[in-house]
Every structure is written in structure tokens, then in C-alpha cells.
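Example: DUF1211 domain-containing protein.
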Amino acid sequence: MTLLVLNISVPPDLGSAAFHEALRDQLPNLGAYALSFVVIAQFWRDHRYVLDRVDASVDRGGHLTLLGLGLVALLPFPTALLAEYGGSHSVATAAYAGTVAAVNGVHLALLVSCEPRRRPVDAVQRLAVADLALSAAVFAVSVPIAFLSTSAGMLTWLALIPVKALVTVGQRRAAQHEGALPIG
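Written out as C-alpha cells, the predicted fold is:
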């Protein structure tokens, strides 16, 4: 989370009207920060989940892990673009969506390509794969949509709210069900 640093500031020594205007000018940066905080928090949770569920030593040299971390570290740049130009420049919206899609894609690749620690793969893990695949797909689909309409591209991301809620409920139910089964 410490990587997410945007230029959120108000110049000193402003009069009342200028202060309020400068504060209003920071609202897009604050909104982009909030959005990216939630997105990066989810990436962190996904990454921890993936590494808990798979034998990451199969990721020889940690190439996928490093690629994912590199993309997350890059996220402040497209976030700043989104804050400044997201409503008026399709490239800013597409860059943000492409970066988010890529991180989800890397987490998905780790989850499906590495040897699972638990055999057979359970319902919780199948739902995690579906969640990552849908997240990557929604953000990837929003890239070309952003070139048609930046607003439509960003609104596409809202499709993930009910999807993530359903996946979370499904994972909790599956974990309770599987946890209730006797071992052996």
C-alpha cells in the first residue's frame, strides 16, 4: 500500500475561495486513491491466497510472482493518469484497466499453473480461479470499451461488485462445508 502515492496536496497560504477550489481539485485524486487502495488490497489478499494454495516453487525463479509485484508497483502511474485524465482521455482509462487486468491474469496464471498443495482441488479454489478469471476478463474487456467511451469503460468495472460478492459468499459456504467434513 505504501507504493500508492499520488500528488494529493493543497498549496499553503490560500484565501478561503482558493482553498475550497484547490480542495475540490483534489477530489479526483482522492477518488483514484480510494479505488486503487481497494484494488491493491484485493491484489494483496489474492496473492496471499495464491501462495497459500499452491507450491510456488513451481514458479521457477519466481518469474510470475515478480511480474505480478512489478505490475502492482506500476499501478500508481496509471492511477495518477486515471485521476487526472480518466474522464477525458481513453488512454488513461485503458492503461489503468490494462494494468489491473494484467495483475489479475498473473495471479490466475500462478493459481492454475503451480502445483496445488491440496488434492483434489476444492470448491474454494475453483471459485478463486473463477474470481480471478472474471476480474481479468472484465478489466480486459473494458480496455477497448474505454476507447469508445471512457465512462462506459469505467462503468464496466462495476460488474465486478456483484460477482465478487457472490464469489465471497460461495467461498465461505464451501469452506464451511468442506471444514465440516471429517478428515480421512
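Helices lie at 16-25, 27-53, 63-74, 76-85, 90-113, 123-148, 150-156, 160-180.
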